[in-house]
Specification:
about 0% strand, Amino acid/polyamine transporter I, single chain, mainly alpha
């Protein structure tokens, strides 16, 4: 059997070979991918529901979930700097826990990314059809899919350039928003009196339940941090690249998320209908009297959706490529041409477009089931990251300590704190009716994949 399908046991590095992939990503690409990957439509639009539920305490919710995300990113950065791989956390889970873990984490994340590609395409198409009424949504989704499929079929540097400029626009927009907001709060923005703390008096308007809803909304808004560690394997200098990207991105993420939430709830009443209907950023800019704010933010949201779509096509294809390189999927997905796994790119795009078609063909049964199934995948992935880091850190310190370019803070205590936080979020999801179905659906998919992965591992061990 070829080396890519050699039996892998716990303690033996999986035989993933990224040498066939091109290494065209530069440090500037990685830095902006790290920043832009978590600044998506979930922040610009989805945060409105969290504000409506939690009121001003949404700032606490984003701060708490932001700290958890920083811990996860640090753990993932430690492992990815020591063992760069396009499989990222999936390869780390296999190295730490065995092939079944890499199989489960990898394919569940692949399903999440492919479905997200379709959802982001639908969201982007809705914005464009709002500008051009009468045009079919599916045609716009198909156009976006073709463009980004072609981008990812070409050299990886094309993906890097798209993401660099997409991320630069998103970062620029949110930075300008923060500057305008701080000036308005300070009372020095012309024509806008400072509200002081008048909108912050009812800090917990719906009590602890509202804070829980806001916390759950904020956790899933942070999804996307994994892309930079996947992309690092195709950079010019993977070890230094991922280390620098992780270090510079973490505090900026906290500033953008927590800072913008603080600006919004200070300037706009939390119970304003516009916060949910228009989105919190549009509502705030309208409150400040910025002309054309709605259309401006629609452009930013469109860019955020297209950026996420591009990144998820890239991430899904590389995860699939890595899994197959390790003997955990159809070998055809590992074919590389021109430095890119083109078959994996095409398959990921097709699956994403099928999800779009399901939203039109089966909107009442199959499509909602699919959405519920991926609802808590990101938390499952984070748990695999934390458990893998607990196992690999000791092993790396003992065998190759020079690889610890990035180190998890206060190990192992903060890793255990992060794990406790994830378990707490699972418990909170089980308490809420809206998220309970997602939790159970994701749990069912995860268990099914784990069973298949374990059976495959046993069969390979016997052979």
């Amino acid at each position: 059997m070829p080396s890519s399908t050699t039996s892998t046991t716990v303690g033996t590095p999986p035989q993933a070979d990224d040498a066939a992939l091109s290494h065209g990503l530069k440090q500037r690409h990685l830095s902006m991918i790290a920043l832009g990957g978590v600044i998506g439509a979930g922040l610009f639009v989805g945060s409105g529901a969290g504000i409506a539920a939690a009121g001003p305490s949404i700032v606490v919710a984003y701060a708490v979930s932001g700290l958890l995300v920083m811990l996860v990113m640090r753990m993932l950065g430690e492992m990815s700097a020591a063992y760069p791989s396009s499989g990222s956390f999936s390869a780390h889970a296999e190295r730490a826990l065995g092939p079944w873990a890499g199989f489960t984490a990898g394919w569940s994340f692949w399903v999440l990314l492919c479905t997200a590609v379709g959802l982001e395409g639908i969201g982007a198409a809705k914005i464009v059809t709002g500008w051009l009424p009468g045009t079919p949504e599916w045609a716009w989704v198909a156009l976006f899919m073709v463009v980004f499929c072609a981008t990812n079929l070409a050299a990886v540097k094309n993906f890097g350039e798209f993401e660099f400029w997409f991320a630069a626009l998103k970062v620029g927009a949110i930075t300008l928003f923060l500057v305008l907001g701080v000036l308005a709060i300070a009372g020095v923005l012309p024509g806008t009196p400072s509200p002081g703390a008048s909108h912050l008096t009812h800090f917990l308007p719906h009590g602890g339940e509202g804070l829980v809803v806001g916390l759950l909304a904020s956790v899933f808004a942070y999804g996307g941090l994994e892309t930079v560690t996947i992309a690092a394997a195709e950079s010019e200098n993977p070890v230094q690249g991922v280390a620098r990207a992780v270090r510079t991105a973490m505090w900026r993420i906290g500033l953008f998320y927590v800072g913008s939430m603080a600006v919004i709830v200070t300037l706009v009443p939390w119970d304003s209908k516009e916060v949910v209907e228009k989105g919190p950023y549009v509502a705030t800019l309208d409150h400040l009297g910025i002309p054309g704010a709605g259309q401006l933010m629609n452009v930013v949201v469109l860019v955020a959706l297209l950026s996420a779509m591009n990144a998820n096509i890239y991430g899904s294809s590389r995860i699939a490529f890595s899994l197959v390189q390790r003997g955990q999927g159809p070998r055809v997905l590992a074919r590389v041409s021109g430095g890119a796994p083109r078959v994996a790119v095409l398959v990921s795009c097709v699956v994403g477009f099928v999800c779009v078609l399901l939203s039109y063909w089966r909107p009442d049964d199959v499509f909602p089931w699919l959405l519920n199934m991926i609802g808590a995948v990101i938390l499952v992935v984070w748990i695999f990251i934390a458990v893998s880091q607990l196992r690999l850190r000791r092993r790396t310190e003992r065998e190759t300590p020079e690889k610890l370019v990035v180190r998890m803070w206060a190990f192992p205590w903060l890793t255990w704190v992060a794990l406790a936080g994830m378990v707490t979020i699972f418990a909170l999801m089980a308490r809420e009716a809206d998220t309970r179905v997602q939790l159970y659906s994701t749990g069912g998919m995860t268990l099914a994949l784990a069973a298949v992965g374990y059976a495959w591992q046993r069969r390979r061990a016997r052979s």
